Amino acid sequence: MEHVVLKFGGSICGQLPDSFFADVVHLQQQEKWRPLIVHGGGPMISSLSDKLGLETQFVNGLRVTTDDMLDVVEMVLSGLVNKQVVRRLLKFGGLGWGLSGIDGASIIAKIKDEQLGFVGEVVDVNPATFQLLHEQGYIPVLSPLGVDAQGQRYNINGDTVAGAVASKFQARLIMISDIPGIYADADRQQLLDKVTRQDVLEMIDQGIISGGMIPKVQAALYALEHGAPEVTIVNGLHEHILQEISEGHAVGTKIVLEEEYSHVVQS
Ligand SMILES: Nc1ncnc2c1ncn2[C@@H]1O[C@H](COP(=O)(O)OP(=O)(O)O)[C@@H](O)[C@H]1O
Ligand SMILES: CC(=O)N[C@@H](CCC(=O)OP(=O)(O)O)C(=O)O
User: Fold this and answer.
1) Domain ranges of the chain
2) By alpha-carbon position, which residue is closest to atom 5 of ligand 1?
3) Cα(200)–Cα(214) distance, integer angstroms
4) Of the ligands numbered here, which is closest to the C-alpha atom of 69?
5) C-alpha dihedral sign at 90, 85, 150, 223
């Protein structure tokens, strides 16, 4: 059975159609996929921190995280959002098991950059808890927090965690967002069906890839460089998107390291 990491962000979380969760459950029950869900929740964190009067600041798509902000991040991601995802799986007979990277020390992290506060970078992924859950028929639902040996918690971008988990399991990574893929221009007119590492780096330089798309493509490249066989960015609003992907249809934007050339040998 193929390991598949599914990552969706806060911008789409509440709008994902029922068919998305039904597909996750069916693909697991048909023993086609061993799904592992990683979710975000950025907009929900911003909304609660606004209500609490905490200021939000992003640097290159990453939230500057004080100790107070960590409380909000953990409450929103590991509480509200995580349990909502577990409940939506249950509706279709799927046994979701919510955990954060703190549980079972699944995501070991360290500080990424002093200026960002308690934002983590992944040091290691401990696969034991995920394996245990899979063996017992559960679908792991992971919120992107990490922990270090001193018990310090970290706020990690959801895409970054998904990229690290996909590389640990050598799993296909599907990034589900509110756009149909990567656009080639700032006006968002031309959608790309495939981008290489070189394209991505140039597009970040030119400002065509910006904001939350930056950690997404960086995580995609990290996963590919560390053994994930395939990474795609797709639109979660599309009904039965996962069923389509599992049947081999090309949807969204595929990210590859190098252009693949086919060599024709003439005799
Ligand atoms: N070149 C690009 N193509 C597509 N989306 C882009 C691009 N550059 C920036 N974006 C923005 O990135 C967003 C996706 O990142 P983000 O909001 O963090 O997603 P999620 O919450 O799903 O992780 C899109 O909604 C879009 O506004
Ligand atoms: C460090 C950092 O920025 N962490 C993210 C974690 C949530 C997330 O990644 O949510 P999306 O997938 O919806 O963007 C944040 O605080 O917003």
Assistant:
1) 2-266
2) 182
3) 9
4) 2
5) positive
Q: Which atom of ligand 2 is nearest to the CA of 8?
A: 12
The pLDDT of residue 199 is above 70: yes
Domain 2-266 in CATH: superfamily?
Acetylglutamate kinase-like (3.40.1160.10)
pLDDT band at residue 263 under the 50/70/90 scheme: low
In the predicted model, what is the mean pLDDT of residues 37-58?
97
Looking at residues 244-250, what average pLDDT do you find? 95
Residue bearing the CA closest to ligand 2, atom 16: 63
Annotated binding residues for substrate: 41-42, 63, 155
Task: Report the nearest atom of ligand 2 relative to the CA of 13.
Answer: 13
- The helix (H) or strand (E) run that includes residue 140 is strand 139-143
CB 113 within 8 A of CB 74: no
From the CA of 129, how far away is ligand 1's center (Å)?
31
Quickly list H helices, 124-169.
Answer: 128-135, 158-169
From the CA of 119, how far away is ligand 1's center (Å)? 20
Is the pTM higher than 0.80?
A: yes
Q: What is the pLDDT of residue 261?
A: 61
Q: Please compute the mean of the pLDDT values over residues 194-202 and round it to a whole number.
A: 97
Look at residue 1 in the predicted model and tell me its pLDDT. Answer: 85
C-alpha angle 163-175-124 in degrees, rounded to nearest 5: 15
Nearest CA to ligand 1 atom 18: 212
> What does each C-alpha distance from 242 to 9, 26, 37, 137, 161 come to in angstroms?
16, 10, 13, 19, 21
Q: How far apart are CA 179 and CA 233, in angstroms?
A: 9
